[in-house]
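Task card 7
Instruction: Convert sequence to structure tokens.
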Amino acid sequence: MRAKEFLGWHEKRLIGVSLTTVIPLGQNDRARIINIGSNRWAFKPEIGFTRKWQRVVVEGYTGIWLFTSNTNFYPGDAKRTQDPIVAFEAHAGYYIKPRLWASFDSNFWMGGRSSINGTGKEDQHRDSRVGLTVSAPLGRRHSLKFSHSRGAVTRIGGSFQTFSAAWQYSWIGKSY
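Output:
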């Protein structure tokens, strides 16, 4: 649609798909346990939906991380494989006024057990996070976005908090 049509369009229901690809870039030295690169490919096909009712919007996504093998894992010629990781994410948001909104965010992921040379490790994920995001307009094309999240359930890895701030610029002057 043209920019003028887009400015008058109001979201109701959308369904979309995506494919995230992580390529094996970076330095990999098979004689070292810690490497800058991952030395494997990863793919995440994902499907999402969003539904808006006046000022309330609900979004949901589901996807699955698929990994190729790392055949140069430490030490030397070890082979590391990893099972798929299934991920779910949901957001419930409220538009206070155009471009000023807040949302409650949550996610859950499970799977990902790894093996080295066929020997399984006890590292299967079953974790989730919850958070809050707020976006506030700064003039016609700019906005600031603040987020906070924390571990709700952590089985593997650290239970940590994140805080983030972002500046956003919109090429189209009117957005909701």
